[in-house]
## 1
Amino acid sequence: MARYNNPQLREKLAAEYVIGTLRGRARARFQALLRYDPGLREIVVRWEARLTPLAAAAGGIAPPARVWQAVANRIAGAASGAGARPGLAFWRGLAMTSTAFALILAAFIGVAPRPEPPMAMIAVMNDEREQPALVVSWPPMKSMRDPYVRIRVVQAHPAMAPGTAWEMWMVPGGKAAPVSMGLITTDADQTMRLKPALAARMEGAWGIAMSVEPEGGSRTGAPTGPVIFKGQCVKML
């Protein structure tokens, strides 16, 4: 049980528990710990407060209208023949309907968004009031041809003033200087592509920060304006 006193491990397990990636016996052990560890329960509550806005902001995915129309047409066609004695034509028609429905389902599955790879790290960026503002996450970079990070806005944020830009920074551990990740917009859901050299360093990121810079970004390669959002990274894998 001594290893569960490690602060970083406690944060990691609590985050995985809330997100749902902690499964099986590991989840059962964690739930047993929660009964006797009030400090751990507080960490879980904090992660729930951080990530609940993110879940609420995620919209549902509706099937394309053509899928429902095709299903309705097939059902209507089958209903029009109700009451007649089933013959060979009926069974052939039923087979065709079943095949068509299978093709429709396959088409829907084909257009449905593919699941993203599991996130390797996540950073919940808070504002000056310690309220979650942005969530930045990314999958394992080593296995990616086109490395990227996902950025999700989880609260109303200040408008970008004219002549300014919002620049994202990777904060390494120790005394290393922040590294620019690039400029972001005010969109609620964004994908930021990373250069290979930066992607190779993301696994060792200590935190992520965002500063207000002149239009076009910092001229010095370092943050020059106020840092309005920041958060520590938590490894998920």
## 2
Amino acid sequence: MTEPPRRPAGQWTPAELGVHHVTGDGLMPAYVRRPHDEQLQAVLDPETEYSRLVVIRGDALSGKSRAAYEAVTGVLADWTLEHPPTVAALAARLEAGISPRTVLWLGELRHHADADRGAAILGLLDDVLDG
């Protein structure tokens, strides 16, 4: 199995992480900051010494992925970001261990949870967070 790509968070494009374009021309419009952005950036504070799982909830196409992208690339741009393309790739990464200063971008968590072995994979994620 090939490993998912990993490179600094600031080197990923929004499209590579599943952020939807909202215009027909394929260009990503300027980001409009909203009140929750400060809270999201605070949760991602790189000085925090513990692992954390950040889940952003909201209606479809409300800007959840874009808000996460802007926060991660703004606050943790030099951290490694991994985006496992499949449930199997996620399981392999969790079993191998996640290095410090790594963002594990899961996108739609429900796709992982609903897959075969979903409960086991979430258990591995829990183990990593407790690590």
## 3
Amino acid sequence: MTVRELTGTAIAKWLDVELPKVRNLRLDLLGETVGGDLIHLELQSGNDAAMPFRMLEYYLGVQRLYGQFPRQVLLYVGEAPMYMQNELRSPDLFFQYRLIDIRTLNGDRLLESVDVGDNVIAILAQLRDDKEAVHRIVERIVGLAAAERETALAQLTILAGLRHLAKTVEQETRNMPIDLDIRDHETLGPIIREARKEGRQEGRQEGELTILRRQIEKRFGALPRWAGEKLAMLSVSELEDLSERVLDATSLEELLR
């Protein structure tokens, strides 16, 4: 049997290539159900066009390690509108996972849960009153054992930074009977500072992206998928540069080449 018969096409040339070694991948959360199934929960704060490839890598990595494929859920926790894809398609492959925008979840129901983990993640979902939610979550954390309290506060501070509420968390802890100042704590202090920094940077990047998308759509019409994916991977400075060039560009292809 010839190569053409095997592949259904002619090979113009053979490529001499050595694929990179497998990277060490770290999942956000991997759990095992009572029935023994594996559940992979990944959190993502930005619209990453490469996310389907990462999720496939995680999918295969879990299978290699545990001998079974996980059910996967990607939870989008960013501020910008979600427009990521949740699948990969090719003539010989179809891969898909669940993609959920956390803002579609009822945060008030999560606050009512007896699981403090649900209470903490509620800060990212739909809430009637963000500040009241922070107050209730911190109040719940106060009643935990010391080690659990530290972990829960760290998680809350990181997630609150994604909603620009890290300062609110800090203020609430001052009003609660917690035997530590999270600003000076060796573990939580750096987390607060980093969360604030990331929150400012992420907010700026998403703001620039939103403005640029509107400029492009007003000048060239609806933004095609390939363009949206490319824009989502650009830095703040690159987005600012495009915002200046969009008025002089004669086409979308010229702008993004």
